[in-house]
Amino acid sequence: MDSNQALNGLIQDNSLTAEEQNIATKVLNHERISTDEALYLYEKANLGYVGILANYIRESKNADDTYFNKNFHIEPTNVCIYSCDFCSYSRLKKNREDGWELSMNEMMDIVKKYDDQAVTEVHFTGGVLPQYDVPFYEELFRRIKKHRPELHIKGLTPVEYHYIFKKEKLSYREGMERMKAAGLDSMPGGGAEIFDKGIRDQIAGGKCSSEEWLEIHEIWHDLGMRSNATMLYGHIETFAQRVDHLDRLRKLQDKTNGFMAFIPLKFRNKNNDMSHVPEVSTVEDLRNYAISRIFLDNFQHIKAYWPMIGRDTAQMALAFGVNCMDGTIDDTTKIYSMAGSEQNPAMTTAEIVNSIRLVGRRAIERDSLYNVIKDYTEEVFDEDTQYRGYAIKHNAN
Ligand code: V47
Ligand code: SF4
């Protein structure tokens, strides 16, 4: 049954409530749902129902196409001047000697390590420290572009930009213009956390406000550039606060159309000051993906970041609105897949392609701006790949 038949079948089911009928009909007609309707879905709708709606939208927008890209991460430091309760980095502030603080040359060495690998993007993420300021990042981005001009730099978030521009007495616009001139290509979605002021002050106090986060993205979009958006969910926020977060993103996207992907980030409770807060279930993760897909009608892509939710959930999420998988792909670290550990930091290309194929989707390698690099539909891998109990022989299609 295709997603259209599934949705039409659902609408004919007379056990649906009037609210469920209305929402399903709106989705079928490609109409926007309201914030009240999104709240209704979070509070009342079951996984099967939201899954059918989200899959219909996913297939209308992206068919079976499921994107991945080959990137590597550089974390300049794991020490941070801020102390977000959910973040394991903030704990290192007092014990700075337990952390790392990379020099520019050390970061360039990481970039050079990938010289003979088919990666297309470097993603900068990590803590905030005073030595990493505007002149530092300008020089770093320029050196990377000089060394490997085609490498896409996706880097930092409004949390860092707010801090470093203030230090330099630059307006957000002046600062973002300088970053663009130095070689910054796109902005990742981090630092959004949850926009509600009360919860943000409580768990991420001191760093840029929600309004500042949104303003920096708006300016970046106005400069003709693209970015992503995230939401940290499943901690102490309410469903209404999730809807408020999604609504602020949808409104900005209406204005700029500069967001590429929305990435829900499941709160994980290990090694941070919120270890007493239980994590939400996998069913809640899938419901959250689905409701995000239904509500964010002006976002083209919903991305699963598998290091946060696990590979199995990411794979299942492909039936609940997700059409993009993120996480390190490294064809040189087969040792990890052999160990079969849940903590694997990387998947090989064969593993990610097969995990996408196994749930009936089409695996496509993309660049950072979602241009197709390679469609893997016809690819035959010349070896078996073992992935968490699945032995996959050659092309699973
Ligand atoms: O902003 C920190 C989150 C984010 C925890 O744009 C946590 O392509 C869960 O934004 N549990 C950084 N989440 C990561 C990020 C990202 C990742 C992958 C791709 C992209 C993209 C962006 O990680 C932070 C914060 O929201 N985070 N601690 C935690 N305990
Ligand atoms: Fe962690 Fe970012 Fe908060 Fe720093 S600002 S403590 S790196 S989440």
Write the layout of secondary structure elements.
Elements: H1 3-11, H2 18-28, H3 35-44, H4 47-62, E1 65-68, E2 71-74, H5 104-113, E3 121-124, H6 134-147, E4 152-155, H7 158-167, H8 172-182, E5 186-187, H9 197-204, H10 210-222, E6 226-233, H11 239-256, E7 259-266, H12 282-295, E8 301-305, H13 306-309, H14 311-317, E9 324-326, H15 334-339, H16 349-357, E10 362-366, E11 372-375, E12 385-387, E13 390-392
Parallel strand pairs: 1-10, 2-3, 3-4, 5-6, 6-7, 7-8, 8-9
Antiparallel strand pairs: 10-11, 12-13
Helix pairs in contact: 1-2, 1-4, 3-11, 3-12, 4-12, 5-6, 6-8, 7-10, 8-10, 10-11
Bound molecules: ligand V47 and iron/sulfur cluster.
What do you see in this structure?
The chain is α/β, with parallel strands linked by helices. The protein has 2 domains: 3-62, no CATH class; 65-287 and 301-385, TIM Barrel (Alpha-Beta Barrel), CATH 3.20.20.70. The protein is 43% helix and 14% strand. The chain has helices at residues 3-11, 18-28, 35-44, 47-62, 104-113, 134-147, 158-167, 172-182, 197-204, 210-222, 239-256, 282-295, 306-309, 311-317, 334-339, 349-357; strands at 65-68, 71-74, 121-124, 152-155, 186-187, 226-233, 259-266, 301-305, 324-326, 362-366, 372-375, 385-387, 390-392. Strands 5-6-7-8-9 form a 5-stranded parallel β-sheet. Helix 11 links the parallel strand 6 (226-233) and strand 7 (259-266). Helix 1 (3-11) packs across helix 4 and helix 4 (47-62) packs across helix 12. The longest helix is centred in the middle third of the chain and has 18 residues, at 239-256. The chain is globular and about 65 Å long.
